[in-house]
Amino acid sequence: MTDDIQPQAAAHSPGRGRPDRRRKVPLRTKRRFDKKPTVIFTSAVSAVLVAFPHVLRLAGLFPGNDSALLLPLLFGPLFVGYALVTVMAIVVDSQLVDIADDHELKTGSRAEGTIFSVREFAMKATEGFGGLIGGFGLELIQFPPNAEAEGVSAGTLTGLLVMSGPLCLVIYGGGILFMMMYRLNAGRHEEILTVLETRRAARATGTGGG
Which strand (E) or helix (H) includes residue 81? Predict the structure, then answer.
């Protein structure tokens, strides 16, 4: 099985003088799975765990507020689900470095800074857009300002559960559809690195051009 994170390729990254740490993050899951199925799987599991308590409450299957199981069954899945988001972020960063390799193969320029700048912009835009959706959602379900537990109607509580459960699953599902468009795999990335290493060796010895 080929591990598609190549520390030696990072060490040869041109114009940087230091290895790219993103390639060296040890992830046991990526030894067994390629990056694309890894990020899709972790995203799907995270989505199910985050939405799990809210969907069960909507279906009337979640323990009541006076149950001793309420807090463990609420915060346990949420903790694991959000912890998986960290795994997703690590794998996505590694995928972006692979994209930089592919871009260098096609154009001769890594454009790594541009690629990660776009990533940072996308994260900021997602945070802003998520706040916008949340604000519209609270207006739609008529969530009262300065609300107290006793002053929130049953309809508003149901709306909150829908936003935190089914709507969350829909948003995650949309993200997974975009993840499925990623085309690089371990084998193809190995081929790219082989060609890039050959080019760099040729430049270093002065026997080849760009």
Answer: helix 70-107
How far is CA 35 from each of CA 12, 41, 127, 182, rounded to the nearest angstrom? Answer: 22, 10, 24, 10
Closest CA to 170 of 66, 23, 78, 55: 55
Q: Residue 44 contacts by C-beta under 8 Å, 6 or more apart in sequence?
A: 172, 176
Mean pLDDT of the chain: 84
Give residue for tokens 């794998």. Answer: 91
Tell me the residue type at 200: R
Longest CA pairwise span in the chain (Å): 78
Question: What's the token pair of residue 88?
Answer: 């997703």
Query: Quick one: 46 exposed, middle or buried, by C-beta within 10 A (0-12, 13-18, 19+)?
Result: buried
- Do the beta carbons of residue 10 and residue 24 sit within 8 Å? yes
Q: How far apart are CA 90 and CA 164, in angstroms?
A: 25
Q: Which tens digit of pLDDT belongs to each residue from 16-75?
A: 444 444 444 444 444 457 999 999 999 999 999 999 999 999 999 999 989 999 999 999
